[in-house]
């Protein structure tokens, strides 16, 4: 199993554990309330939304990853979404530890 598959599996586990927030407005609220520990956005997200999420993540110092498209992200979490936030430090740490780089 490669790191991308592990990443997708961990996202699915986080969702089942209730530690995954989906959708633009809910993710922005999670970032503002400082509950988000990691934000994952799809590579094919609209530019305006991408900038909004990116700027908010930077302001609140929340790590942001973007390396999978909307279809792959949606399959990983079982819902059609392009933006998710992880609200659990353990899941966030495990996902960041996989060290997946953009374009890899």
TrEMBL record:
Gene3D superfamilies: 3.30.1330.30. Residues 6-95 form the Ribosomal protein eL8/eL30/eS12/Gadd45 domain. It comes from the Bacteria. It comes from Pediococcus cellicola. Pfam families: Ribosomal_L7Ae (PF01248). This is Ribosomal protein eL8/eL30/eS12/Gadd45 domain-containing protein.
């Amino acid at each position: 199993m490669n790191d991308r598959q592990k990443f997708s599996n961990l996202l699915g586990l986080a969702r089942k554990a209730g530690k995954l927030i989906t959708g633009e407005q809910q993710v922005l609220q999670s970032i503002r309330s400082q509950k988000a520990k990691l934000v994952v956005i799809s590579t094919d997200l609209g530019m305006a939304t991408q900038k909004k999420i990116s700027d908010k993540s930077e302001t609140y110092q929340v790590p942001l990853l973007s390396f999978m498209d909307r279809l792959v992200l949606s399959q990983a979490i079982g819902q059609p979404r392009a933006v998710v936030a992880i609200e659990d430090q353990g899941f966030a740490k495990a996902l960041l530890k996989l060290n997946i780089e953009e374009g890899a």
